[in-house]
């Protein structure tokens, strides 16, 4: 585990496909949450983390990217959120985030620790955009229920819709099925 | 119970998948995706990046010639250089007209286009589309998409496709 990655525990009863779908849904959720300008718990960033520094606001790149002062959304070029990925899926865990060899690792780590290119971490400025609250994890996993009358059907439908979208798009874009 | 089971998801979902796919990639939705893509290309270019080839990695736009820098310094003094650049920054932004004319639209299912409109420029008797061709020919092919831009587009389409498939 590096500083720009997270691990969540899941039931070992999930199949490989179910784990894959859950992992993909986690990434999609974090991307969308971040783009809305929200952090853990789908809440706006608060305190120092909720505002950009004056020097950043006045920078050319801030203006060139058309960023808004009141929207802290981990998006300058957009590359970082796109590069976030599933790092490992094991029997009862999903790891996601950025591998240390990712070109976006430094940027992600800077956000999470609040370093932003400096040596010293600053917890007040830190934006741990990978973190999911228990409620958020529960909400994602509720699409893949393990108990209840229709649990299996619900799970299968959600896995099928997600994995078929991934596979269908791959097939459409590349003309053949590819390994993930 | 067998250890492995091959599941052809497209076959399982059948018509439902095809209709969701067509709906997601409809001409009107393609216009939205292309509009977003045009914005992404604008931002990437203003930040000084391009892809030498389609779906390539991002690299810096080649530096400006000293004579161009001099001219841009002159424009800055006159207050005519865009606020989204500096005299030395190579980001295809002098007055800002070229990138402002970049637009995207859907043409038909799964096909869209991003292009620079043929609007006439205020400063010279030229069209923005001519300037786009010129700068591309001069080694600044800013309309090539980076691999990450294509990935982002695919992620957005997948997100919408999943939403539709779940609704049904």
Write the layout of secondary structure elements.
The complex is a heterodimer of chains A (180) and B (168).
Chain A: E1 5-9, H1 16-35, E2 38-39, E3 43-44, H2 54-57, H3 60-64, H4 79-83, E4 85-89, E5 93-97, H5 105-113, H6 134-141, H7 151-174
Antiparallel strand pairs in A: 1-5, 2-3, 4-5
Helix pairs in contact in A: 1-7
Chain B: H1 9-24, H2 27-46, E1 49-51, E2 58-60, H3 66-78, H4 97-100, E3 102-108, E4 111-116, H5 128-137, H6 147-167
Antiparallel strand pairs in B: 1-2, 3-4
Verbal overview:
The complex is a heterodimer of chains A (180) and B (168). With 180 residues, chain A is of the alpha+beta class. Helix content of chain A is 42%, strand content 11%. Chain A has one domain. A three-stranded antiparallel β-sheet of chain A has the order 1-5-4, with helices on one face. In chain A, helix 1 crosses helix 7. Chain A is elongated. Chain A starts with a strand and ends in a 6-residue tail after the last helix. In chain B, 50% of the residues lie in helices and 11% in strands. Chain B has six helices and four strands; from the N terminus they run H-H-E-E-H-H-E-E-H-H. The N terminus of chain B is likely disordered. In chain B, the strands form two sheets. A two-stranded antiparallel ribbon of chain B has the order 1-2. By secondary structure, chain B is mainly α. Chain B has one domain. At the A-B interface, helix 1, helix 3, helix 4 and helix 7 of A face helix 1, helix 2 and helix 6 of B.
**Shape designation of chain B:** elongated
Mean pLDDT of chain B: 90
Instruction: Summarize the amount of helix of chain A as a percent range.
Output: 40-55%
In whole angstroms, the N-to-C terminal distance of chain A is: 21 Å
């Amino acid at each position: 585990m590096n500083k720009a990655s997270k691990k969540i525990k899941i039931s070992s009863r999930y199949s490989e496909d179910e784990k894959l779908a859950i992992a993909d849904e986690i990434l999609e959720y974090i991307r969308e949450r971040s783009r809305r300008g929200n952090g853990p718990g789908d809440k706006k960033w608060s305190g120092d983390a909720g505002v950009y520094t004056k020097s950043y606001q006045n920078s050319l790149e801030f203006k060139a990217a058309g960023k808004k002062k009141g929207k802290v959304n981990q998006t300058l070029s957009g590359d970082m959120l796109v590069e976030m990925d599933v790092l490992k899926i094991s029997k009862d865990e999903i790891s996601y985030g950025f591998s240390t060899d990712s070109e976006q690792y430094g940027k992600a780590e800077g956000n999470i620790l609040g370093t932003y290119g400096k040596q010293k971490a600053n917890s007040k400025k830190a934006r741990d955009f990978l973190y999911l609250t228990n409620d958020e994890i529960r909400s994602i996993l509720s699409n893949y229920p393990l108990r209840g009358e229709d649990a299996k059907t619900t799970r299968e439908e959600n896995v099928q819709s997600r994995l078929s979208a991934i596979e269908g798009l791959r097939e459409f874009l590349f003309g053949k099925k590819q390994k993930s | 119970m067998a250890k492995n089971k091959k599941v052809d998801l497209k076959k399982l979902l059948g018509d439902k998948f095809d209709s969701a796919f067509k709906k997601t990639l409809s001409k009107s939705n393609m216009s939205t995706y292309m509009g977003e893509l045009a914005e992404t290309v604008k931002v990437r270019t203003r930040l000084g990046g391009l892809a030498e080839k389609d779906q390539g990695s991002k690299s810096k736009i080649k530096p400006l010639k000293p004579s161009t820098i001099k001219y841009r310094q002159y424009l800055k003094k006159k207050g005519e250089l865009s606020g989204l650049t500096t005299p030395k920054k190579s980001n295809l932004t002098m007055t800002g007209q070229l990138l402002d004319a970049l637009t995207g639209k859907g043409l038909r299912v799964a096909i869209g286009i991003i292009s620079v409109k043929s609007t006439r420029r205020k400063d010279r008797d030229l069209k923005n589309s001519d300037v786009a061709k010129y700068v591309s020919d001069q080694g600044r092919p800013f309309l090539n998409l980076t691999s990450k831009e294509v990935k982002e587009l695919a992620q957005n389409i997948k997100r919408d496709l999943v939403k539709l498939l779940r609704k049904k």
